[in-house]
């Protein structure tokens, strides 16, 4: 399965940024349901190194996902 890695330098504190990242699984599908149908953790507990399954919504032709 193809994969990608992205590294960004952000000018924010780690604590608040990680709090946002922890809530994205529930938050993004509620805010942007046409883009994100669901985001689930399939391996790990949500910490760095965990694996998420992102199911895309109606904006993605023929559906789709990223793991």
Characterize the structure shown:
The chain has one domain. Helix content is about 25%, strand content about 25%. It is globular. The termini are close together.
The counted number of beta strands is: 3
Radius of gyration: 13 Å
- Rounded mean pLDDT is 84
Low-confidence region ranges: none
Strand content: 15-25%
- Fraction of residues in helices? 25-40%
Domain unit count: 1
Overall spatial form = globular
Category by helix and strand content: alpha+beta
Query: How do the strands of the widest beta sheet line up side by side?
Result: 1-2-3
Keywords:
alpha+beta, START-like_dom_sf, 1 helix, three-stranded antiparallel β-sheet
List the SSEs and their pairings.
Layout: H1 14-31, E1 36-43, E2 51-56, E3 65-66
Antiparallel strand pairs: 1-2, 2-3
Question: Short summary of the structure?
Answer:
By secondary structure, this protein is of the alpha+beta class. The protein has one helix spanning 14-31; strands at residues 36-43, 51-56, 65-66.
